[in-house]
Write a structure and sequence with these properties.
By secondary structure, this protein is an alpha+beta fold. The protein is 31% helix and 15% strand.
Length: 170
């Protein structure tokens, strides 16, 4: 059998239009990492069970290991590389650093992207809502308490106009 021919896709990743030529069976995760060099999105279980590969598609968290790249041509994809505003970290990134919400860091990009989607919809989520939103993201290092506290701190900061996190505990 012959290999399927590559298809040309125009993807919008972190606000930038990018043209790629890929095998139609390639997942979004594979295209991000292998073709676009966006290695911040992690390769975990390949089964959609760990959340390490979570990115935002039109503002909603999705598992890029279970999504074909071709399904994303007309979508807005956001990865961890686009989370910071130039040299200024997003409040979630700073809160994770302040509260030890990251340890080995492997699950962190997926956690951050999923938490960002939550906070964009609900600026003041309860602990139960945070746990529910992050329930598809597995972490083997932190025990989750620091992650939940990090999301709570970022929510408080994001809900306070003019306030911002610093490198120190807020």
């Amino acid at each position: 059998m012959s290999q399927p021919k590559n298809i040309h896709l125009l993807l919008t990743v972190n606000g930038e239009s990018m043209q790629v030529s890929v095998n139609p069976g390639k997942t979004l995760l594979e295209v991000l990492r292998e073709d676009l060099g966006s290695t911040g999105t992690k390769h975990g279980c390949e089964l959609g069970e760990c959340g390490a590969c979570a990115v935002l598609r039109d503002g909603e968290p999705v598992l890029s290991c279970t999504l074909l790249a071709i399904e994303c041509e007309d979508a807005r994809i956001e990865t961890i590389e686009g989370m910071a505003d130039k040299d200024r970290l997003h409040p979630l990134q700073l809160a994770f650093a302040n509260h030890g919400g990251l340890q080995c860091g492997y699950c962190t990009p997926g956690m951050l992207m999923t938490a960002r989607a939550l906070l964009e919809k609900n600026r003041r989520p309860s602990r139960a809502q945070i746990r529910e939103a992050l329930s598809g993201n597995l972490c083997r290092c932190t025990g989750y308490q620091q992650i939940i506290e990090s999301v709570e701190q970022a929510a408080a900061i994001m809900d306070t106009p003019g306030d911002e996190l610093t490198g120190n505990d807020a």
